[in-house]
Amino acid sequence: METSTDMTLSFQHPLHCIFSPLLQGMVPSFSNEHVNEMVIQTSNSIMADDDPQDVADRERIFKHFDSNGDGQISSQELGEALKALGSVTPDEVQRMMDEIDTDGDGFISHEEFTDFARANRGLVRDVAKIF
Ligand SMILES: [Ca+2]
Ligand SMILES: [Ca+2]
C-alpha cells in the first residue's frame, strides 16, 4: 500500500504540489481532483487572450503615441505624447524608452508596447482615461 501512495504522488504536477496544500488548508473538503482543475484553469487564464477593453485601450494609446503612423514609437514621439500628459524631463523619457524598448533599437515596436502594457495594466487603464 505504501508503494501505491508514492506512485500517485510522483505523478503530481509541480504547481499542484504548491497549490494543493494551500487550498486544502483553506477548504478542508477540497479534493485533489478539484485542485488539478483549478491549476489547469489558472494556467489557461494566463495564456488566454487579454480583456478586450485592455486590448482596445492599448491599441488606442499606441496609435496616439505613434504620431507618424509608421508602426513604432520613437523616443521623440514618446516625449511629445508624455509632454501632453504633463511636464516630463528628457531623462524621464529616456528612462521610459529604456524600460519599454527591450531590444534597444531606439524604437518601441508594437510587440514591445504590448508586452509593457500587459505588465502594466493599471497604468494603461489610467493613461487610457486621459486620451
Ligand atoms: Ca512612429
Ligand atoms: Ca525596440
UniProtKB/TrEMBL annotation:
Against Pfam families, the record matches this protein to: EF-hand_7
Q: Which PANTHER family match?
A: CALCIUM BINDING PROTEIN
According to UniProt, the name of this protein is EF-hand domain-containing protein
Gene3D superfamilies tied to this protein: EF-hand
According to its UniProt entry, this protein's organism is Phaseolus coccineus (Scarlet runner bean)
GO CC terms in record: organelle
| Keyword annotations from UniProtKB, A to Z | Calcium, Repeat
Q: Name one GO molecular function term.
A: calcium ion binding
- Locate the EF-hand domain: which residues? 53-88, 91-123
